Amino acid sequence: MSRKRRFLIPGVDRNLLVKDAAKLLPDPARRRFIAGGASLGALTLLTGCDVTDSFSAEQLLTRISKFNDAVQAALFDPNKLAPTYPESAITRPFPFNAYYALDDAPDIVAADWKLEVRGLVDNTKPWTLDELYQLPQETQITRHICVEGWSAIGSWSGVRLSHFLQLIGADTRAKYVWFNCADYDGYNSPLDMASALHPQTQMTFKFDNAILPRAYGYPMKIRVPTKLGFKNPKYVIAMEVTNDYKGGYWEDQGYNSFSGS
Ligand SMILES: Nc1nc2c(c(=O)[nH]1)N[C@H]1C(S)=C(S)[C@@H](COP(=O)(O)O)O[C@H]1N2
Ligand SMILES: [Mo]
């Protein structure tokens, strides 16, 4: 196809748009789309968006991404557990990952840290680390999967998030629990309520039976073994129970918010 034809819509390379859209589509819609010839016309029908310029192309991709989230959320089984592993399977050393080098990771002093609780909850009292350490903890050995193409098995101990949400009188009919982190450039991530209430979703205080090291999110991370790594926020300083979709660090850059593993 000549360059001229490909760019018939100002600023939009049709081939690339169709390719990007196919990548975002969940199965079986993706298979149907490809079998049907993967055309811009089919995309228009599927999404109800008419692509006339780069702005509407962007909107179409957002629409597909949301569609993908809705499909994933509908398929999520709140009782299905992520696989667990024996101690011998733990990856040592466990990788550190963030959008910066370890030297730039938050260096939190316990005495200065409090977990802020906001939004649709009965009790917004902030929690000290000592108070949180009093709550019942359990340990899981599960696999962490990062979209960047690596996975590793770790041992995490902490409090069930569902138990904590109950303690603070959270309205669990709300759509999200949104987490805010201490990273220098900000890091945050929304978690859908069904996943927040999943029995393996944990407020984590220990890695490999020792106080969570700085690399892995001291003093607290949220471990969600049914989700990809970026939906496991480290260095958490606040949680908000909300019906508003507030976006997140990677979510805002185009990763699906549901991102199940
Ligand atoms: N606060 C914060 N949480 C974060 C990140 C980050 O950059 N900042 N990166 C995410 C990503 S992409 C991954 S893969 C995991 C890495 O966790 P680890 O360092 O314990 O392996 O943390 C997630 N949570
Ligand atoms: Mo990641």
Here the CATH topology of the largest domain equals: Sulfite Oxidase, Chain A, domain 2
**How big a fraction of the residues is strand?**
15-25%
Count of domain modules: 2
Overall radius of gyration: 21 Å
What is the succession of H and E elements? Answer: HHHHHEHEEHEEHEEEE
Q: How many angstroms does the end-to-end distance come to?
A: 38 Å
Protein architecture, described:
- The chain is α+β, with helices and mostly antiparallel strands and 261 residues long.
- It is 26% helix and 20% strand.
- It contains eight helices and nine strands.
- The strands form two sheets. Strands 2, 3, 6, 7 and 8 form a five-stranded antiparallel β-sheet that branches. A four-stranded mixed β-sheet has the order 1-9-4-5.
- Helix 2 (14-24) runs parallel beside helix 5 (54-75).
- It is elongated and about 60 Å long.
- It starts with a helix and ends in a 19-residue tail after the last strand.
- The protein binds the ligand Nc1nc2c(c(=O)[nH]1)N[C@H]1C(S)=C(S)[C@@H](COP(=O)(O)O)O[C@H]1N2 and molybdenum atom.
- Molybdenum atom (MO) is lined by residues 97, 146-148, 229-230.
